[in-house]
User: Which sequence fits this backbone?
């Protein structure tokens, strides 16, 4: 069979991308870009204003001295960087697609690997073009509309309905597959979506460090444990009561309890599930997951949840890995923190798969008279999702400091040694801190500090912060003119909020903390890669959600799935709100 | 009986099995990880 479809589509997509790159580079669409990237453009105007003033002064000085006007270049703004990035991506991909598109038109494909892998390129280009339009066009347009309508409506509709690149991408995917149908030349490429999603999940391991997981680890294991085992138990109980076939009940419980589609597939041979039962379960999970993906972020925003709380809730309450990522990105499209927390919970849930598979096998054999015995070890080795192990391997390397400084938190790391000379505290600032130190050491000041630390329950590494520790942190800061340790920063971050704390000293402490906190360039690059991989994967996922698959979620599985899904979503929301605190 | 739509891969993937897809994603992810590490 020959897979490559002769079509000029790939060439046209490549030309569109190249044209966008050229328009960006030439500055012809700066007017439109200034609307689409309002915040970056604001930064650009500030940089330009400052540069113009400096140039004017330098020119006047040069003229007075009889020298030629200075040759100065305006420093790059965020707006320039954003445009340059769009240009670069458009040229790289557009160029490659034009070349392959031309080749495809003249090439006579014959059956083989080359034909098979070449046939996926037009579909990849198709999804990528949609990703470009959505991320660079629709997302900022809706964000602008949402903000513009806020004074009239009283709320930002784009934020509340999560009309960002993730949701818009999936919706466009669903519209294309159900209304317009996927063009034949793009069909093979759409089937790469899950591969790119899995790549994104593995790569997500680079963003974690052991320090972060230590904070979330026990919490995620306990929460997930309760909800996974609870969901499986309730589905098995309800399935029995409602008279569903054992194999149907068992496979649905794996899907509802662990991680959606992959758990369903992994559990199916253990309980000898029929093809239509697997399809029913996947349909139920998909319809429930799609609903959650839209509802969760809205509820999260209404309840004012932070990234850690929302991530924990989505990672526990939503069934399918891709939809967990979709909801997390919809809630927080421009940061990756929510996604990271959600994935930690999601991955923890996947790690329960072997236990659930064992439980289901035992349950099935017990309830199904004459059930054929299956080799559990073999099933696990054959079905366990290897990409989960890839994520863990990546996390281990990242914790060892391979991809980013060890001990970083959300891409930021502390380094006293890297504080630049011009960022050291000035005389006026150290004197202000010294003045506060003297005040806090006086009897009244010491009493006030003790009361504040007790009232606010200021805790570091599990023990209450003492006056002496605060004095030492302040003394070290004065002596070194910079923050020496992360602990000093954490202690003083709380102390500066004391009533009556000197404003200059407060500003100096915050400045010292900022100067010692650095952004990891590699983490920024990984975040960007992950955002693109997920955007691509989720648009492709949208293209696989057909009306037929959604209709399959009818009858008993939908009732059982709906009840258990609601219990899980509401139960995990209550637990998260009660026990999960934002500690960023 | 209806002929399978895809002689190679599955309806949701271009790979013949989930395991093959997982390993390919693993290789691709590590290529990106080390690419960023050495180039950024």
Assistant:
């Amino acid at each position: 069979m020959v897979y490559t479809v002769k079509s000029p589509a790939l060439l046209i997509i490549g030309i569109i991308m190249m044209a966008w790159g050229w328009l960006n580079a030439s500055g012809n669409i700066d007017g439109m870009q200034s609307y689409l990237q309002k915040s970056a453009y604001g930064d650009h105007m500030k940089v330009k204003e400052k540069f113009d003033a400096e140039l004017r002064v330098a020119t006047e000085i040069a003229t007075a001295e009889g020298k030629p006007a200075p040759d100065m270049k305006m420093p790059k703004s965020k707006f320039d960087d954003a445009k340059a990035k769009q240009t670069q991506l458009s040229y790289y991909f557009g160029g490659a697609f034009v070349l392959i598109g031309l080749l495809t038109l003249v090439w006579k494909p014959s059956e083989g690997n080359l034909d098979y892998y070449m046939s996926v390129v037009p579909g990849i280009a198709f999804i990528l073009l949609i990703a470009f339009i959505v991320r660079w066009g629709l997302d900022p347009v809706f964000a602008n509309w949402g903000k513009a309508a806020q004074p009239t409506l009283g709320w930002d509709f784009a934020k509340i309905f999560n009309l960002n690149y993730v949701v818009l991408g999936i919706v466009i995917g669903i519209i294309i597959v159900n209304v317009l149908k996927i063009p034949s030349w793009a069909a093979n490429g759409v089937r790469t979506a899950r591969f790119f999603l899995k790549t994104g999940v593995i790569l997500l391991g680079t963003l974690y460090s052991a320090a972060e997981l230590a904070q979330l680890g026990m919490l995620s294991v306990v929460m997930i444990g309760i909800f996974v085992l609870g969901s499986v138990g309730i589905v098995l109980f309800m399935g029995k009561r409602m008279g569903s076939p054992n194999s149907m009940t068992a496979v649905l419980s794996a899907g509802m309890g662990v991680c959606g589609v992959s758990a369903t597939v992994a559990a199916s041979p253990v309980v000898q599930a029929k093809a239509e039962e697997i399809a029913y379960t996947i349909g139920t999970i998909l319809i429930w997951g799609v609903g959650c993906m839209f509802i969760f972020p809205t509820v999260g925003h209404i309840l004012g949840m932070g990234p850690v709380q929302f991530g924990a809730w989505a990672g526990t309450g939503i069934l399918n890995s891709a939809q967990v990522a979709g909801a997390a990105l919809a809630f927080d499209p421009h940061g990756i923190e929510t996604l990271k927390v959600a994935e930690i919970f999601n991955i923890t849930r996947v790690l329960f798969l072997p236990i659930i598979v064992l439980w289901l096998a035992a349950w099935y054999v017990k309830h199904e008279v004459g059930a054929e015995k299956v080799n559990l070890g073999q099933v696990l080795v054959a079905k366990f999702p290897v990409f989960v192990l890839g994520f863990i391997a990546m996390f281990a390397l990242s914790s060892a400091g391979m991809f980013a400084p060890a001990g970083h938190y959300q891409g930021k790391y502390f380094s006293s040694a890297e504080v630049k000379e011009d960022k050291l505290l000035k005389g006026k600032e150290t004197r202000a801190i010294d003045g506060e130190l003297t005040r806090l050491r006086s009897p009244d000041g010491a009493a006030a500090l003790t009361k504040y630390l007790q009232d606010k329950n200021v805790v570091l590494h599990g023990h209450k912060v003492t006056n002496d520790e605060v004095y030492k942190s302040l003394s070290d800061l004065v002596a070194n003119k910079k923050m020496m340790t992360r602990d000093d920063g954490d202690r003083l971050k709380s102390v500066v909020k004391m009533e009556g704390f000197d404003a200059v000293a407060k500003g100096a402490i915050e400045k010292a903390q900022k100067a010692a906190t650095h952004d990891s360039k590699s983490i920024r690059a990984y975040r960007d890669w992950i955002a693109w991989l997920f955007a691509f994967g989720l648009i492709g996922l949208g293209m696989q959600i057909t009306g037929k698959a959604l209709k399959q979620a009818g009858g008993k599985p939908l009732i059982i799935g709906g009840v258990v899904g609601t219990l899980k979503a509401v139960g995990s929301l209550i637990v998260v709100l009660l026990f999960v605190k934002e500690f960023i | 009986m209806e002929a399978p739509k895809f002689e190679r891969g599955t309806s949701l993937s271009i790979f013949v099995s989930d395991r093959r897809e997982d390993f390919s994603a693993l290789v691709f992810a590590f290529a990106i990880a080390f690419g960023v590490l050495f180039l950024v």
